[in-house]
Structure formats: structure tokens, C-alpha cells
Recover the amino acids of this structure.
């Protein structure tokens, strides 16, 4: 608020703030999903309209690969298996598409000799934030 002498008063419990609510003096530390309601209060003036912001704190998740044999031959396929700690479905992408590709969401197709790099991701949802992507490199040998 730009009113001289105005103070920001807020609540974190969903209640409408009043001039007696907690005074904002520094950054808030929020560890769980919280609704922040705030008003500006200045002596001799009406309180401002209430502003509301919902801060959603998402749970963290990680991805773990199932063990992969590190060497395959051209023309073979591999069913990819990785799990997210959230239980949400994991997606796969090849970053070396001339060496290997992904089909049917979880099948690695080995196209040429070289190092096949596959990255597993999980984008998150309303409860979980995105998982850090992790990659596997698989050696693809000529037939």
C-alpha cells in the first residue's frame, strides 16, 4: 500500500484480517499449503480491501530406475522400468534418437550402435511437485 504510515496486517488461518492481526514485517515462512489474507491499515483511513493468496506446497518426489543391463544389440528392444516415489507414472524420452527411440511409452528400440541415453521424468500433479529427471546410458552394439 502506498498510503503513508500504512501497515500490512495478515492471517494464515483463512480468517479475515483486522487491524489487530499480525503485522507484516518480513518474509513469511510457509511449510504447508496456506491461504494468506492481508489488508492495509492506516490511522484515520478505512482498511483496504482484503487480498488473498493461496500458496500450495507440493510434496517432493524422486525417480528410481530398475536395474538395466548396460549392453544391448541393434534391433533389440527393452521395456523400461522406473518408479516415482509418489507412485505416479514415469515418462521416458531418448536424447539420442539416432541410437534409440521410445515407443509405446516404455519400450526402448535400439536403432544403431552407440550410447543410448534415456531420461526418466515425472511432471507431478496437484499433490506432488516434478521429480528431478534422471538418465541412464545404455551401450548399443552392432549385431
Amino acid at each position: 500500500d502506498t498510503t503513508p504510515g500504512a501497515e500490512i496486517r495478515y492471517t494464515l488461518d483463512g480468517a479475515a484480517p483486522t487491524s489487530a492481526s499480525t503485522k507484516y514485517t518480513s518474509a513469511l515462512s510457509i511449510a504447508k499449503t496456506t491461504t494468506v489474507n492481508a489488508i492495509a491499515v492506516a490511522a484515520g483511513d478505512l482498511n483496504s480491501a482484503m487480498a488473498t493468496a493461496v500458496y500450495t506446497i507440493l510434496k517432493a518426489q524422486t525417480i528410481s530406475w530398475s536395474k538395466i543391463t548396460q549392453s544391448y544389440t541393434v534391433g533389440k528392444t527393452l521395456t523400461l522400468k522406473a518408479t516415482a516415489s509418489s507412485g505416479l507414472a514415469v515418462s521416458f524420452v531418448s536424447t539420442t534418437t539416432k541410437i534409440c527411440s521410445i515407443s509405446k511409452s516404455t519400450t526402448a528400440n535400439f536403432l544403431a550402435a552407440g550410447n543410448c541415453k534415456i531420461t526418466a521424468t515425472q511432471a507431478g500433479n496437484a499433490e506432488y511437485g516434478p521429480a528431478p529427471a534422471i538418465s541412464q546410458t545404455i551401450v548399443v552394439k552392432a549385431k
Summary: The two ends are 71 Å apart (CA to CA). The first strand starts at residue 7 and ends at 11.
